[in-house]
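Dear colleagues,

For the upcoming journal club I promised to circulate an example of a predicted protein-ligand complex. I picked one with 2-phosphoglycolic acid because it came up in last month's discussion. The inputs are reproduced below in full, followed by the predicted structure.
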Amino acid sequence: MEVIILNTPEEVATLAAELVSKQVQDRSDSVLGMATGGTPLKTYEKIIKKNMTGTLSFAEVTTFNLDEYIGLSPEHPRSYRYFMQENLFDHIDIRPENTHIPNGLAENPIDEGPAYEAKILAAGGIDLQILGIGSDGHIGFNEPTSSMGSRTRVKTLTESTLEDNQRFFKAGETQPTLAITMGIQTIMEARHVVLLANGSGKAEAIQQTIEGPLSARCPASILQFHEKATVIIDEEASSKLELTDYYKRVREEQETLLARFGD
Ligand code: PGA
């Protein structure tokens, strides 16, 4: 796992946007895995800027989002489809038909999982997956004790996730307790996984992800098994790590190596 500790959320977003840019510049028809939530917002702002200034085109890109609430229509302001349109898709040159999000209104939500998996497979798999992390260590909506071998399916959200996400819902609005989410195995099959986290609220989950035991109690810890996982965090999110100096030294030496031998 590559652990990159930066000073601020701004720097985290700058690097994440650079990684997305590099992926799309290397392969214009890349398949990107997208995330919702507060964490990737700044990254999306920076991607929009790059697209506006003409340095980055999404004309041939395909995207798959991690998850969607069951019961919310694409027009519902709290749905993840709405979030993605508002915060990214409506502002870049991506083709609407190339953007995929699980259907929260599927007539049969149980069948939606395998159907979504089939679409990812038909697109050739995900090249780069952006991830946030829950304070309980979830990735996508794979809550603690999710099967490490899981695929896209319906999940029941934990109390902790419902509390964390309550801030997005207005008083009186019904907050769904079920979601359709890519599984842990689905995420693990992405060729490159980039996990972003900011703030002290994520420090415990980040420590468990990077240094804790591999455990379904912290689903993100599975990334210890990924061949190419990059964890980009700010100082606050790194505050509970024990080997911080080592991660910083690894990065310095990595940069020296890259400067000499290229990538
Ligand atoms: P956040 O959520 O980015 O809003 O903190 C992350 C997540 O729950 O995966």
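Two points we might discuss: The chain has one domain: 2-261. The longest strand covers residues 192-197.

See you all on Thursday,
B. R.
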